[in-house]
């Protein structure tokens, strides 16, 4: 099939960007969306034009590196997958596809479709962990955990940190990302000691990074490639109020 | 001629590590902060090492080329992690895990290293649970285990099909904590492009900031390469797009020996190539072989729809050839047999490079819902990629490059032949011999990072003393200039063919002549082809854009240049090893039943290669493997 692809081109974080239109010919329905971009880039190189910069790595939906906003939706028209798992059979001959980077002031564009998601790392650095050093820990089976809690913690822990939640949110809120980590650790006995301080620190860092507030529209959860539930945000809010009510950080 | 001292401690295998730990020198707590340690790569080995060393009090600088340390390719591991916990009371022990690993590796790994790996495996699980890694659990609240290829006990811990992700996020959280505390300085989107040596020891690295293009250097008392494997030398593999050999290769060119480069693992159950556009291959967990039956049509060139091929016209070749293990033979055996069928023109699908993995019997026996409960996510993944329904039609599978057992040569302390330069995880060669067992890669990465390097690096540091490395030493400027010159060179060639073109060509050569089966004639041919490709690359490669900006073609050009050189060494190594063992199958050396035939008298050694200069033949050094505990036998799965 033949397609028209309109792509955001921006030389660097300081220059202005614009949409540029390209024709891509002989696209196979078996190609992944990123392979279609590979073909387009090879074509650009052969013509002496600079290829389009885009983030990608594992190409199997788990590293969280790919990040395209396709036809107004994070990771494209299907749910529960990342851009690298989207195949061209989801499009038809003659389609025009619009591709933009994640749009959020906390995720500045570096070049073309590549953005800086360092804010996510800084939120985890602020408290998204259990403070245990290597060695000196108890035997693994000395900490029994109910299967229900373990499975729920796992569901939250599947977050790949791609940022689709932020890109999909009209407020560019990072609540789903932060809530996923808080939920995972709040459900587990290992996370209890730092339960209150963790949510305080992570929420404070989230706000410092310039993400918007959550207004519970639920777009984040719909577009999340790992389908992390919006319930985690409610959980985060409960954790946050409980922590503030009993805060030792006054 | 040998310069290799493996430093394996004397004494019974079970006491070596304990004794060795006691003999290692210590650095006192107040002095630790005077040492700088550089960690390259933030996968399981790198993240666990960086976090643990920072906890001990060292100054750590960590580097990764991805935009976040959480994205290293360890994240993609599916199946699980082995540990000799014996929680199932089914007869497991440290000794049994050790034995299975040495045997699975076809007796080409070091006993001492493998025993230590089995010994610390139990600590890894404790550590990960303490971090909040959500492993699968039983209803009683205790940890669940599953069985895996090459073992008769259930010792594999798992987190659904995403064990690698959960373990990496555990190590990443420990690393993040140290970054937040200021004990680790993290450099993301930064690639190591050379090693800095002063007086024969590793004292720093040269890096390129992938966003600004700035080339700079970092000094340290020790450098740890935790940079993963080199499967992407084949172009198509299950590795991430960015996975590369550059850091290890450039260290090799500075004097670190490269061991057993031809030992690569081909995984049997991957989704086949669908066309020239293919950029990577996706693996599906080998657990599918528990219920799926592998077959091809009996008739050569039979292109009928599988549903039209009657039962008596099908050849269930694994069940036929290996009645006792059937579809559950180890990875290398399963892969080689699939290739054999396709070479005989019995392959299926449009390319003819696939065999069927059929669940019809399992669905009949267990019902579709039971099969869905067991393998649902894998079936979904297959449907997603191929657009076909595996509940109705048999899956098509084909082997793909998955893991590299070879890597930088290291001694028992994980130090390479360059003092102060260490290699951890898949980047080193030490623990898996000629074939790695499933669920052992995660174990090795974390063993090296959490429980081995924190002890062994101290011994070296205590020896050299805490005097700061002189950043004004000319070696830094020299190494930087060399990297800058290479960048300039790539941009100045202004040829006609893209970097990807060369990568794809290299991959074809490697797969055809140095893949699942090799022979002297093909390998000799490959030598010539790679030489021609290298010449053409440096004359005609086209890299657009500039050096001082984000430039993905430029990044890739450096990586492909190194892959081409590594490819040549892999071929050399495969030619040298006149035997078959594990993943290395030389067609000239097979039993009457077409199985790998080892030559323990002549090849029970580690082949460690020394770089002697551009375009010069590398020199082979041999480390003879001593088997004091395990008796060498011929593997049989009949």
Molecular structure report:
Chain A is 35% helix and 11% strand. Chain A is α+β, with helices and mostly antiparallel strands. Chain A folds into two domains: 3-111, Ubiquitin-like (UB roll), CATH 3.10.20.30; 117-245, Alpha-helical ferredoxin (Fumarate Reductase Iron-sulfur Protein, Chain B, domain 2, Orthogonal Bundle). In chain A, the strands form two sheets. In chain A, strands 2-1-5-3-4 form a five-stranded mixed β-sheet. A two-stranded antiparallel sheet of chain A has the order 6-7. In chain A, helix 2 (118-127) packs antiparallel against helix 6 (195-208), helix 5 packs antiparallel against helix 6 and helix 5 (175-187) packs across helix 8 (231-245). The radius of gyration of chain A is 20 Å and the shape is elongated. The relative contact order of chain A is 0.14. The model of chain A has no long low-confidence stretch (mean pLDDT 97). Chain B is of the alpha+beta class and 638 residues long. Chain B has three domains: 13-263 and 405-464, 3-Layer(bba) Sandwich (FAD/NAD(P)-binding domain), CATH 3.50.50.60; 266-400, Flavocytochrome C3, Chain A, domain 1 (Alpha-Beta Complex); 494-597, Fumarate reductase/succinate dehydrogenase flavoprotein-like, C-terminal domain (Methane Monooxygenase Hydroxylase, Chain G, domain 1). Chain B has helices spanning 16-23, 29-32, 44-56, 94-104, 111-131, 163-180, 246-253, 317-321, 331-343, 360-366, 368-386, 441-464, 474-493, 499-514, 520-540, 552-576, 600-603; strands at 36-40, 59-63, 81-82, 156-157, 184-187, 190-198, 201-209, 215-219, 222-225, 258-259, 264-270, 293-297, 314-315, 355-358, 395-404, 407-408, 421-423, 605-610, 619-624. In chain B, the strands form five sheets. Chain B has a five-stranded parallel β-sheet. In chain B, strands 11-15-14-12-13 form a five-stranded antiparallel β-sheet. A four-stranded antiparallel β-sheet of chain B has the order 16-10-18-19. In chain B, helix 10 (360-366) packs antiparallel against helix 11 (368-386), helix 14 (499-514) runs parallel beside helix 16 and helix 15 (520-540) runs antiparallel to helix 16. The interface between A and B is large, with 77 and 76 residues.
């Amino acid at each position: 099939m033949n397609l028209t692809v309109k792509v955001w081109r921006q030389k660097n974080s300081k220059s202005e960007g614009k949409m540029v239109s390209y024709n891509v010919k002989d696209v196979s329905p078996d190609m992944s969306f990123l392979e279609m971009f590979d073909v387009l880039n090879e074509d650009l190189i052969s013509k002496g034009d600079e290829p389009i910069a885009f983030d990608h790595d594992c190409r199997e939906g788990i590293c969280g590196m790919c990040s395209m906003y396709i036809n107004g939706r994070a990771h494209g028209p299907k749910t529960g997958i990342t851009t690298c798992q989207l195949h061209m059979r989801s499009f038809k001959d003659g389609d025009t596809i619009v591709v933009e980077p994640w749009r959020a002031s906390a995720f500045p564009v570096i070049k073309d479709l590549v953005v800086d998601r360092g804010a996510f790392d800084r939120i985890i650095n602020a408290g998204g962990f259990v403070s245990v050093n290597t060695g000196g820990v108890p035997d693994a089976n000395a900490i029994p955990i109910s299967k229900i809690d373990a499975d729920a913690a796992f569901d939250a822990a599947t977050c790949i940190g791609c940022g689709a939640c932020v890109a999909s949110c009209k407020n560019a809120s990072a609540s789903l990302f932060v809530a996923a980590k808080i939920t995972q650790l709040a459900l587990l006995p290992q996370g209890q000691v730092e339960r209150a301080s963790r949510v305080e620190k992570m929420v404070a860092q989230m706000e410092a990074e310039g993400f918007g507030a959550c207004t519970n529209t639920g777009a984040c959860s719909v577009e999340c490639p790992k389908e992390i539930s919006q319930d985690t945000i409610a959980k985060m809010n409960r954790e946050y109020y409980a922590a503030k009510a009993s805060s030792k950080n006054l | 001629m040998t310069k290799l001292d493996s430093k394996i401690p004397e004494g019974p295998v079970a006491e070596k590590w304990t004794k060795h730990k006691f003999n290692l020198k210590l650095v006192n707590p107040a002095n630790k902060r005077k040492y700088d340690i550089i960690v390259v790569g933030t996968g399981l080995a790198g993240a666990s090492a960086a976090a643990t060393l920072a906890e001990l009090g060292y100054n750590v600088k960590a580097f990764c080329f991805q935009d976040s340390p959480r994205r290293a390719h360890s994240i993609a591991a599916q199946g699980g992690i082995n540990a000799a916990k014996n929680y199932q009371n089914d007869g497991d022990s440290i000794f049994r895990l050790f034995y299975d690993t040495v045997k699975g590796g076809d007796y080409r790994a070091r006993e001492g290293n493998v025993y230590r790996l089995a010994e610390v495996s139990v600590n890894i699980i404790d550590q990960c649970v303490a971090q909040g890694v959500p492993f699968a659990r039983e209803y009683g609240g205790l940890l669940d285990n599953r069985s895996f290829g090459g073992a008769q006990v259930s010792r594999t811990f798992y987190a659904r099909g995403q064990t690698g992700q959960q373990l990496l996020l555990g190590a990443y959280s420990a690393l993040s904590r140290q970054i937040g505390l200021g004990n680790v300085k993290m450099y993301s989107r930064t690639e190591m492009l050379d090693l800095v040596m002063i007086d024969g020891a590793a004292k720093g690295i040269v890096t390129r900031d992938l966003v600004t293009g700035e080339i700079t250097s970092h000094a340290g008392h020790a450098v740890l390469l935790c940079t993963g494997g080199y499967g992407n030398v084949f172009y198509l593999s299950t590795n991430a797009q960015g996975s590369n050999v550059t850091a290890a290769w450039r260290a090799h060119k500075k004097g670190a020996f490269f061991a057993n480069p031809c030992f690569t693992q081909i995984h049997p159950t991957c989704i086949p190539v669908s066309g020239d556009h293919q950029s990577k291959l996706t693996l599906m967990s080998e657990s599918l072989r528990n219920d799926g039956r592998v077959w091809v049509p009996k008739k050569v060139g039979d292109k009928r729809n599988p549903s039209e091929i009657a039962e008596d016209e099908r050849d269930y070749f694994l069940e036929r050839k290996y009645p006792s293990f059937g579809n559950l033979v180890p990875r290398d055996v399963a892969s080689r047999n699939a290739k054999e069928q396709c070479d005989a023109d019995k392959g299926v699908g449009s390319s003819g490079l696939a065999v069927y993995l059929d669940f019809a019997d399992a669905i009949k026996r267990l019902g579709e819902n039971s099969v869905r409960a067991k393998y649902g996510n894998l079936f979904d993944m297959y449907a997603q990629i191929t657009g076909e329904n595996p509940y109705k039609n048999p899956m098509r599978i084909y082997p793909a490059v998955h893991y590299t057992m070879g890597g930088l040569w290291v001694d028992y302390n994980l130090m390479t032949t360059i003092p102060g330069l260490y290699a951890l995880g898949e980047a080193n060669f030490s623990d898996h011999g000629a074939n790695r067992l499933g669920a052992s890669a995660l174990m090795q990465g974390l063993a090296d990072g959490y429980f081995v390097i924190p002890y062994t690096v101290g011994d070296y540091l205590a020896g050299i003393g805490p005097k700061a490395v002189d950043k004004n030493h000319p070696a830094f400027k020299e190494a930087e200039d060399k990297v800058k010159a290479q960048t300039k060179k790539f941009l100045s060639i202004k040829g006609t063919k893209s970097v990807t073109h060369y990568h794809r060509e290299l991959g074809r050569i490697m797969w055809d002549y140095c893949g699942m089966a090799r022979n002297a004639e093909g390998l000799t041919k490959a030598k010539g082809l790679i030489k021609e490709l290298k010449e053409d690359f440096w004359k005609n490669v086209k890299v657009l854009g500039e050096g001082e900006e984000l430039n993905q073609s430029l990044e890739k050009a450096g990586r492909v240049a190194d892959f081409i050189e590594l490819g040549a060494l892999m071929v050399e190594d495969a030619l040298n090893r006149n035997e078959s063992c594990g993943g290395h199958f030389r067609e000239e050396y097979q039993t009457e039943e077409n199985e790998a035939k080892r030559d323990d008298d002549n090849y029970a050694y580690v082949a460690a290669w020394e770089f002697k200069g551009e375009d010069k033949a590398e020199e082979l050094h041999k480390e003879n493997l001593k088997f004091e505990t395990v008796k060498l036998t011929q593997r049989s799965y009949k």
